[in-house]
Amino acid sequence: MDQPAPISQPPGPAAAPPLRDRLTIPVLASGGILMAVMQTVVVPLLPDLPRLTGASAATVSWTVTATLLSGAVLTPVLGRAGDMYGKRRVLTGALALMTIGSVLCALSSDIGVLIAARALQGAAASVVPLSISILRDELPPERRGSAVALMSSTVGIGAALGLPLAALVVQYADWHTMFWLTGALGAMGVAATWWAVKESPVREPGRFDVLGALGLAAGLVCLLLGVSQGGSWGWGSARVLGLFLGAALVLALWWWQQLRAERPLVDLRLVSRPRVGLSHVAALLTGFAFYANSLVTAQLVQAPKASGYGLGLSIVATGLCLLPGGVTMLLFSPLSARISAARGPRITLALGAAVIACGYAVRIADSRDLWMIVIGATVVATGTTLAYSALPTLILRAVPAGQTASANGVNVLMRTIGQATSSAAVAAVLVHHSGPVGGVPIPTLHGYLLAFAMAGAVALAACAAALTIPGDGTPDGTRRAEDTNRGARDQAMQGA
Asked: How far is residue 402 CA from its own chain's centroid?
């Protein structure tokens, strides 16, 4: 007698992913925001640090310079280490160094300790490229674009949040409280990252290129030290010229060594491909254009009313003026992902650079009324969101999966060099166009407008560079690596 056929049950609803998987993106994004906050919080302290530490203003400026230098050096180095030894492991270590730096700043008022601690905090600059590489390895393609866009936007979001937060703490509490706060948030970030983020199975094995790391570090320190200190030491001084000459020689030797290394720190043959190299050029130009917005806006609205254009705002009010830009970056990052999915990240990058230029056109048209200043700064922030969100997607599509952290590290390095150059160029323009107000030299409105025009022109150059990048696509090596990575995760899930 035939057995009755079993009645198939309709499939039930798909099981929700574990809580750890659902928190991966929020945890990584919070780490990026915390990194940007950490870089910004010391800015409101700079005018008071000489009195608080007993050091000169020139020495105090190293609390910013040390973070810039260490971040520029460690970002590509830690990116390469992440590709080799595990991205979550290196990411957790970078957050731990940032946390240790915050605790040291909270415990001491000695300027030497503060500078050393801020150098430790520079390791956190690698958080964004490492996190983007983790997202590329762990997320399916349909979720990857928006997550990467959000991660890249955390730099601007954190900077916009950090300035008013630090200003409030400085105004109403002991300045050490600010570092206790960032230290506590950093410790939470370390624990959350270790718990919620999986270790990526994608690795690029090999021996770490110690000689290449030392050479890159020496060349970048010479270059960025000359750029950051040129205004105070004199651009024609022997020290600055010697630094630039030393940077050129060391980086030339480093380039020669990297081309001959079996496992180089930076794959220069990959960088020389137009899709990768032009993306790095666009990152440098975009970093220059973006950074002028924060620098100039903060100084302009705080200028005394006696200048004829200044608003005489406090540092807290200044931070609030920049806050809409941070909110805009958070809201527009999903739009950037959708544009990249529909038109490609190359078009998104070009559009973002063009929007930045439009924002500076608004600034040139009216920099006297507060509401127009806020609108112009917010437009620049919107363009920055589009551009910064597209850059890592361009890199992810152009390099093999095993080199994503190091390649994005180089891209972030190029943004850092652009920002350092922007700071020096804006300072040079404003110093050259200054006039006495109450016996104190204050930049003229014409100087600010020239800075806006310079940044807008660089943004248009970034737009042109973006349009010359070859069409989007996914290289075969990248696709094979992604398939292998996906298969490894599927096997692991089945075994579980």
From this structure: 21
